[in-house]
Specification:
Elements lengths: L1 E5 L19 H12 L3 H6 L3 H5 L1 H19 L5 E4 L3 H8 L5 H21 L2 E8 L2 H10 L3 E7 L2 E7 H9 L5 E5 L12 H11 L10 E2 L11 H11 L6 H10 L4 E4 L5 H9 L4 E4 L6 H7 L2
Parallel strand pairs: 1-2, 1-8, 2-7, 8-9
Antiparallel strand pairs: 3-5, 3-6, 4-5
Helix pairs in contact: 1-4, 4-5, 4-6, 5-6, 6-9, 9-10
C-alpha cells in the first residue's frame, strides 16, 4: 500500500529546484503557475538565498508548486495521500479536492496571511528532540508555549513568543535537545489566528471536490471523505497544532508498505524511518531519486 506525502515549510533549501528544471516541460509548468500567482517560482527555487525563501509568503507556494510538478513527473497512483502543514494543499490538489491552480492561488493567500500575522508579534519555533513525551508537553505548557507540531518519532515543535522561547531554552525538558527552527513565526498557534479569517474568505470562493483516494488530515490523522470538510480543516489548521504522529498512526493501521515523499523530500521519510519501521521510504530530493521511487511502485 502506497502513501504519497508532501513536506511542509522548512523543507526548502536554496537551489533545490535547479536539477528538476532539466526535465522537459517542468519549467513551462512552473512558469505558468508563476504567472498565475504573481511569484517567480523558478527564480526562488534556483537562485534565491536562504533568507529569501525563508519568507513565508514565498516558501509556501514554492513548496506546493514543487510538490505538484514532481508528482506529475512521477505519475504514481497512491492509495493514501497526506501533507504536513502547507503540504496539505499539495495533498488536496493530488486527490482532486482542489485543482493545482486553486491550490496555488489559495496557498499564495495563505502565505501572505501568515506572514502578516507573524509580523504582529515576534514569535518563533523550537524543535524538541527526545525526552519523555509527557515531560516535554508539560514543559512546553509551563512556559506558555504551544506544541505546534507533534511529529512523532520523539520530535515535538514548540511555538510561541521569542521571550517564551528564551525562557524555555533556559529551562529545557530533561534529556531533550532543543533546535531553533528557521521560520518566520509561530505557525499553528494562536498567533496565527488573524490569518484564519483571511484564508476563510479566500476559500469561500472555491467549490472543492471530494478526494478520489484516501486523504489524511493533520488535525487528527483521520481520513476525510468530504472535500468541503477538508478545506475547512485546512483553514482552521493554520492556528491549530499539526498531529503528524496521528497521520503516521493511521498509515500504520491501514497497512502502508511504501512511502514516497515529494520534493524537497527528506523530513517526513526521516520521521517514518523511526516511527514506521519496515515501511519502504523514498525521498525525492533530486531527479536521481526517481528511479528508486518508480522501483518502489512495482
Amino acid at each position: 500500500m502506497l502513501v504519497l506525502v508532501a513536506p511542509g515549510q522548512g523543507a526548502q533549501t536554496p537551489g533545490f529546484l535547479t536539477p528538476w528544471l532539466e526535465i522537459p516541460g517542468l519549467a513551462d509548468r512552473l512558469s505558468a503557475w508563476s504567472d498565475l500567482i504573481g511569484l517567480d517560482l523558478i527564480s526562488y527555487g534556483t537562485t534565491a538565498d536562504a533568507d529569501e525563501i525563508r519568507d513565508t509568503a514565498v516558501a509556501q507556494p514554492l513548496l506546493v508548486a514543487a510538490g505538484l510538478a514532481v508528482a506529475e513527473i512521477l505519475g504514481a497512483s497512491p492509495d493514501i495521500v497526506a501533507g504536513h502543514s502547507v503540504g496539505e494543499l499539495t495533498a488536496a490538489a493530488l486527490t482532486g479536492v482542489l485543482t493545482p491552480e486553486q491550490s496555488l492561488t489559495l496557498v499564495r493567500e495563505r502565505g501572505l496571511a501568515m506572514a502578516e500575522a507573524a509580523a504582529v508579534t515576534k514569535t518563533g519555533m523550537i524543535a524538541v528532540l527526545g525526552g519523555e513525551e509527557e515531560e516535554v508537553l508539560a514543559s512546553i505548557d509551563k512556559h506558555g508555549l504551544t506544541p505546534a507540531n507533534v511529529n512523532g518519532a520523539g520530535q515535538i515543535v514548540a511555538g510561541g513568543t521569542l521571550a517564551q522561547l528564551e525562557e524555555f531554552k533556559a529551562d529545557p525538558p530533561a534529556r531533550a535537545k532543543l533546535v531553533a527552527l528557521s521560520v518566520a513565526g509561530a505557525f499553528h498557534t494562536e498567533h496565527m489566528a488573524p490569518a484564519v479569517d483571511r484564508l476563510r474568505v479566500a476559500a469561500a470562493a472555491i467549490t472543492p471536490g471530494d478526494p478520489a483516494v484516501t486523504l489524511l488530515s493533520n488535525a487528527d490523522g483521520a481520513a476525510v471523505a468530504s472535500g468541503a470538510e477538508f478545506v475547512d480543516r485546512l483553514v482552521s489548521q493554520i492556528a491549530n497544532p499539526v498531529r503528524w504522529n496521528a497521520c503516521m498512526a493511521t498509515m500504520a493501521d491501514m497497512g502502508v508498505t511504501t512511502m514516497i515523499e515529494l520534493t524537497p523530500g527528506g523530513t517526513l521519510t526521516g520521521l517514518a524511518k523511526r516511527a514506521l519501521r519496515g515501511v519502504k521510504t523514498v525521498a525525492l530530493k533530486t531527479p536521481d531519486n526517481l528511479d528508486a521511487a518508480r522501483e518502489a511502485l512495482k
